Amino acid sequence: MRVLLLSDINGEQWAQDLSILDETEKYGWLWLDVTDPTQCEVEQLGQRFGLHPLTVEDIVDDATSQDKMERIGGYALVMYRTTTDMTAETAFSIVVGSGWILSFHTSAAQMHVGRVLDRLQEHSNELLGSSFVVYALIDEITDWLTMTMTQIEHDVVQIDNAVMTQVPEEHTGMLQHMGLLRRRIVGIQRLQLGKPDVVRRVARVLGSNDELGHHFRDVCDHLAALGSLCTQCEVVLSRAHSNFMAQMSLKMNQTTHGLGMFSNRWLVLLGLMLPLQLVAMAFGQNVYVPWMYSDQPLRFDTIAPWLGIMGCILLAFAVGLGFAWYRNYLSR
Asked: Maximum CA pair distance of the chain?
């Protein structure tokens, strides 16, 4: 557990437990940020700030939390989900009361608090309050989602270009990469769905001046742009996936055709080897073979059986070769 206490009197303070609340002086407003709280610690803060038991349950039960904004008694609960490593989701719970704000999150979302502190330091000369802190947290999470989606868009464009320019042999792991990007896009879309309504409700409740209301409207514009970017990336990725599968199908057809031609040629060669076997058998017959006896002249009546065998072999060879050429001609 790590606790941040920011107030207009004591400034920024860090601690490892909730005892810091007992050590502070009287403050005008405060922001208490708790990292990785336990259920007991959330219940302890709930009793101190008068939180409803259902609010405590929503804060503790991170797995079933959804983006929402509820007004309960004298405070408002804002659940604004974010992403940690492109795929994992985590809830960022904000409770806004009169002059105080509580925020709860896991250590994976601690980066948002650091950036909000930097933003508050940039506006240190201005009159800040709990409403501005809520806006800064929501805007920081929205900017983080937009930056994450921009990185995904860059990867999608690279895949689209690679599918159109590279040969299929260079597409190693392309299908797995497409599946991972599509999973990330769906995750961002799921995170973005309920956020515009939440921001509008927060603006109606906390937008006490025109300047802050303008800031919340700007967040809504960023969320609308984020949704459009998700849809655009999904369209481009779907097109790249279709082109990739078409190239793979064409490559498979070419490979199958090449294997078929290769096997046909070898079958023809094997078929033409049969006459050679017959030649070997012919020379093993009990017939006179030319030049068997060098001291005897060649006569037609003595070599007629051999000529008949060789003629049949050549005729079979010619018929087989002609039939193979005819079949190949018809297949074109």
From this structure: 135
